């Protein structure tokens, strides 16, 4: 594997000099990746006062833009971050790595930026033109294996150069297309590297798409929560229950009892609302609601309560998967592009189509 860190170099340089207009004064259409490159990288402050580093690393030939949010003293002294004091990458804080949905919304919003249960937040930007984790589109994630490998190699090789963390306490969050990469490719191929880990799969999921590495061991010690809404995208109304069924079957194959499976694998789609609208109001606010209660849902000792989740949910989302595989949906949009954004006057905004 090959990793090169490009410390705090704005991605805008990647598109500098590109023609912005074509004949008759019409703006040249840019890819989501090109538009994202206009958003500067650097150092900023998180909502809880932590330091956010936004930079890019070349991993296996792929440009992986990332954000790490942690107390300044946790960054490696050699990173150049003001206040950095760590001299060893072996820290005490856990890490919650989030993979955004198609188009990159949650990378820029960074909903897991606040430290939660001694766990720092990390978010990675998909390395392709559409900002789709796994490439392709819909349920066909043609670059899933390569992207899953890049996520793993970022954690294993780049993060220790930047920040001190507990490498035995790395957990994951998927959003929409990011959940497809996690469930379809990352868990099967890379989760063996993260024993006793946890994954929250928000508004997305599909069965493993590749051979499962060390399946029995992984399934026996990985906490997985599937979270959706009543009016999920129609494309995902089929794939999420299929994912629940497939992972439950892997638990059975691993010799787990019903109680053991239900303790590790949970599912919920009680709130009304559309794709990722877990609060019943909107995409961004809905994703934030789940991110803010991450530790309650999948980390040890969590009570399963999500504060601010939409009605008619009681707030308790930890329902065991056995007997609850076939979720009930109502309506839902048909489009297969699960998230789109573009830059308008310098602002990164959500589209509705």
Automatic annotation (TrEMBL):
InterPro entries, from UniProt? Answer: AB_hydrolase_fold
Q: Which SUPFAM superfamilies match?
A: alpha/beta-Hydrolases
Q: Keywords, A to Z?
A: Signal
Q: Tell me the domain of life.
A: Eukaryota
| Signal peptide annotation | 1-17
Q: What is this protein called?
A: Cyclin-like f-box protein
């Amino acid at each position: 594997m090959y990793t090169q860190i490009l410390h705090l170099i704005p991605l805008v340089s990647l598109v500098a000099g590109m023609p912005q207009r074509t004949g008759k004064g019409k703006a040249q259409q840019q890819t989501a990746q090109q538009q994202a490159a206009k958003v500067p990288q650097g150092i900023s402050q998180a909502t809880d006062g932590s330091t956010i580093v936004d930079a890019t690393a070349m991993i296996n030939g792929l440009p992986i833009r990332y954000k790490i949010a942690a107390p300044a003293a946790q960054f490696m002294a050699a990173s150049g971050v003001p206040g950095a004091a760590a001299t060893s990458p072996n820290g005490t804080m856990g890490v919650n790595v989030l993979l955004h949905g198609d188009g990159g919304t949650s990378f820029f919003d960074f909903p897991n930026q606040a430290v939660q249960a001694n766990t720092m937040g990390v978010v990675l930007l998909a390395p392709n033109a559409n900002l789709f984790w796994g490439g392709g589109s819909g349920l066909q994630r043609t670059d899933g294996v390569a992207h899953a490998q890049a996520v793993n190699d970022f954690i294993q090789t780049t993060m220790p150069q930047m920040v001190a963390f507990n490498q035995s306490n790395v957990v994951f969050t998927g959003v929409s297309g990011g959940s497809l990469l996690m469930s379809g490719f990352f868990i099967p191929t890379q989760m063996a590297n993260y024993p006793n880990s946890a994954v929250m799969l928000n508004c997305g999921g599909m069965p493993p798409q590749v051979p499962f590495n060390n399946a029995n061991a992984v399934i026996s010690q990985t906490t997985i929560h599937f979270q959706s809404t009543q009016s999920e995208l129609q494309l995902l109304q089929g794939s999420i229950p299929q994912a629940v069924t497939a992972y439950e079957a892997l638990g059975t194959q691993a010799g787990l009892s019903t109680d053991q499976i239900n303790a590790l694998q949970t599912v919920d789609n009680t709130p009304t609302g559309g794709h990722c609208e877990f609060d019943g109001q909107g995409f961004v606010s809905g994703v934030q609601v789940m991110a803010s209660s991450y530790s309650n849902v999948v980390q040890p000792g969590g009570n399963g309560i999500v504060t601010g989740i939409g009605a008619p949910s009681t707030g308790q989302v930890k329902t065991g998967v056995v007997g609850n595989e076939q979720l009930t949906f109502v309506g839902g949009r048909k489009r297969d592009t699960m998230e789109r954004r573009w830059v308008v006057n310098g602002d990164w905004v959500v589209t509705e189509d």
